[in-house]
Amino acid sequence: MVLQASRIETEAAETGHERDLFEVAVEQFEIAAEVLGLDDDMRRILGHCQKELTVNFPVEMDDGSVQVFTGHRVQHNSVPGPTKGGIRFHQDVTLAEVKALAMWMTWKCAVVGLPYGGAKGGVTVNPKLLSQNELQNLTRRYTTEISMMIGPNKDIPAPDVNTNPQIMAWLLDTYSMNVGYSVPGVVTGKPLVLGGSEGRSEATGRGCVYAIEEAARARGMDLTTSRTVVQGFGNAGSVAAWLMGEMGSPVVAISDSRGGVYNPTGLDLATVTAHKRRTGSVVGCKDAEPVSNDDLLTLPCEILIPAAMENQITGENAGEIRATVIAEAANGPTTPEADAILFDRGVFVLPDIFANAGGVTVSYFEWVQALQAFPWTEQEVNDRLRRIMSRAFLAVYETSERHGVHMRTAALVRAIARVAEFTRLRGIYP
Ligand code: GLU
Fold first, then answer.
1. Distance, CA of 317 to CA of 79 (rounded, Å)
2. CATH 3.40.50.10860: which residues of the chain?
3. Inter-residue contact 142 to 69 (CB < 8 Å)
4. What is the C-alpha R_g of the chain?
């Protein structure tokens, strides 16, 4: 396993070819497929995305000009059920990235046992440069462009990087206008009044903290004396930071896309949150020293929560990570080379497809509530989420011990075995 990852690194260095994110996802898949002894036919099927749509569409801007944006919707695998996955608006979105994220959604849903395959969408745009009106126009036109792929029993979008309940409300409305009636089950992460679920907006961060609690129990760690570092102060990172703080863990560093702040004795989260609300960033918050997003990763701490973008922990910096547990609230923050180094060094990684599965799990609850038109309480949502995260942790941990592999490969082994079994049972049509 370790050998395979370093071979990949050497090949990449020799050819001078920098792998795109989908190649990384396929490498992770191949490593797990090898442990599983998966046959070549199944590897070919599961190693591809079933459907990939790219759209170039015009949006009228506030100044009357027209801009053309590029977006994608990719469905990796629909064998387990309707496909599920968020939509991101980011200037660096590429088809390869969306394909990787779609594949990870398939594995994520399988790890926690949801009846979904994986999908993802994205538009290459910096939404922070758009007015609300332009953002709405872009969302509605993108929704229309991908509408032949989505639907409550087909493919169900949700929020991801830089998208939020308001954007999901526009998506719901656009889809509903096109079909002629309201379809609350077409999207999750909606505002509560439109059929969203209690606990959905906190679910990714909360699920990540439940995962950390399980890891701490299994490895005999006391979270009240464990220092936490969080990279990213968005939807997942801010909730994870607050919940770690509530458990007594000193949260010593936090960052956002502009930079970070550090206080070795623990940040005051209310002050950081108020500063971010006032200025748009955590940078410059009082009672803290500045730290860059790169340096933050190697600060002394016990728990590191990458909650921003992919490719943060790499072969370059994995040797310097000082955390004992890494909980991946972001998708794809760790490269396969880094995984091998961290495993050798005894750093315990809670992989994205498990650690951030709380978001899609509560999306599933939201979808069930929408289809039944019967809302649950926040307590019900959180209790069910905890049970699902605990069960998945124990299963993945047992698999990692049995095969002597790290938690990512163990989670992938379980997920791939499940999707492969569904595929075998259903057979190949025709
Ligand atoms: N975007 C989130 C993820 O990457 C949530 C997806 C969903 O709720 O469908 O897991």
1. 38
2. 49-194
3. yes
4. 21
Q: Hey, how many other C-beta atoms are within 10 angstroms of the C-beta on 404?
A: 11
Q: Within 13 Å, how many C-alpha atoms sit on residue 85's CB side?
A: 32
**Predicted TM-score of the model (pTM):** 0.96
Q: What separation in Å is there between the alpha carbon of 359 and the centre of ligand 1? A: 5
**158 Cβ below 6 A of ligand 1:** yes
Residues carrying CATH 3.40.50.720, the chain:
203-355
pLDDT averages per 10-residue partition of the chain, 430 residues: 41 62 98 98 98 98 98 98 98 98 98 98 98 98 98 98 97 98 97 97 98 98 98 97 98 97 98 98 97 98 97 97 98 97 98 98 98 96 98 98 98 98 97
Superfamily of domain 203-355: NAD(P)-binding Rossmann-like Domain (3.40.50.720)
Atom number of ligand 1 nearest to Cα 161: 1
- Residue 363 Cβ < 6 Å to ligand 1: yes
Query: What is the distance in A from the centroid of ligand 1 to the CA of 158?
Result: 6
Task: Please state the length of the chain.
Answer: 430
Residue 246: the pLDDT is: 97
Asked if residues 53 and 73 have their Cβ atoms less than 8 Å apart, the reply is yes
Return d(Cα 55, Cα 182) in angstroms, integer.
25
Q: In CATH, what number does 49-194 get?
A: 3.40.50.10860
For ligand 1, the distance from its centroid to the CA atom of residue 360, given in whole angstroms, is: 5
Query: What tokens appear for 7 in the block?
Result: 């071979």
Among this protein's residues, is 84 annotated catalytic?
no
